[in-house]
Amino acid sequence: MAHVTLDRSPPPFFRQGASALSKLLVFSALALFLMVADARFRLTQPIRIAVASVLYPMQWMLVRPVLWVQNAARHFETLTSAQNEAEVALQKLRLQSYRATQVEQLSLENVRLRSLLELRERISTPARAAQVLYDAADPYTRKVIIDKGLLHGIVAGSPVLDESGVLGQVTRVYPSVSEVTLVIDADQAIPVLNTRTGVRAVAFGDPGIQAGALELRFMATNADVQPGDLLTTSGVDGVYPPGLPVARVDKVERRVESAFARIYCTPQALVEGASYVMVLDPVSSQMTARPVPEEMPLVMKKGRQK
Fold first, then answer.
1. Confidence class of residue 194 from pLDDT cuts 50, 70 and 90?
2. Counting beta carbons within 10 angstroms of the beta carbon of residue 298, is it exposed (0 to 12), middle (13 to 18) or buried (19 or more)?
3. Do 231 and 247 touch, CB atoms closer than 8 A?
4. Which among 11, 181, 233, 237 counts the fewest CB atoms within 10 Å?
5. Neighbours of 105 (CB within 10 A)
6. What pairs with residue 201 in β-bridges?
7. CA–CA distance from 248 to each of 171, 184, 220, 232, 264 (Å)?
8. Where are the domains of the chain?
9. What homologous superfamily does CATH list for 127-286?
10. What is the pTM of this model?
């Protein structure tokens, strides 16, 4: 039996119109014509304007979410950048504040060192500059440790000054450091001279209510002492050179029931914040030895015996 083939061609009823190739050529030519005509005569410009006017609200609505997202992202980016810049500015401000503090401290130290140099020029006693390292660990004494000791020629009993006046006295010496007892220590006493009246007295460290001050003891109630009087070293102890500022009278209490006045003085030296000091040699080390009396000739002795 012969195979029957199926005819896949459309029936005659549907066979009408131009072919696909013809349509492609026609529409391509029409498109090319319209493009040339639009480019030269702008035939479709009104249509474009109308279409753009109709589509603008829809475009505006569709663009809004995109702009909102972009603005939000830009806002957070700007906020992060501002926070970073603020942090950097704060770090710079802290650094500048620290440097300003250092500058003030260095300026203060420079002024004190210059004052020490000027004081050293006025004093003929041999002196050595030293730096205060730290306060002594004993809470019941007022002592500091300086960075000069036996290796630098420091001896016990040496007076210690700062740029304002007498700070204390070296009481213990080690090879590389020394211990300085301040004038406000309870066990420290220093002979002083009232520059206004010329009266000598002894100033003691006051550990009581007036801690951090000096007390002028054993002064009669009617003694001529007034607030504001300057007390300097008298030089009679063989330790301190005369004329060094020690303290200034702050308050005088005269009581009827007591034979002595209570006189409180404020030290001239920076007993609470000294950084650089000057150590002097004791005055006794500069004094010449007392001459030994010569023995009388034997003839004179015999003559006196007769």
1. very high
2. exposed
3. yes
4. 11
5. 11
6. 192
7. 24, 13, 18, 9, 9
8. 21-122, 127-286
9. Rod shape-determining protein MreC, domain 1 (2.40.10.340)
10. 0.57
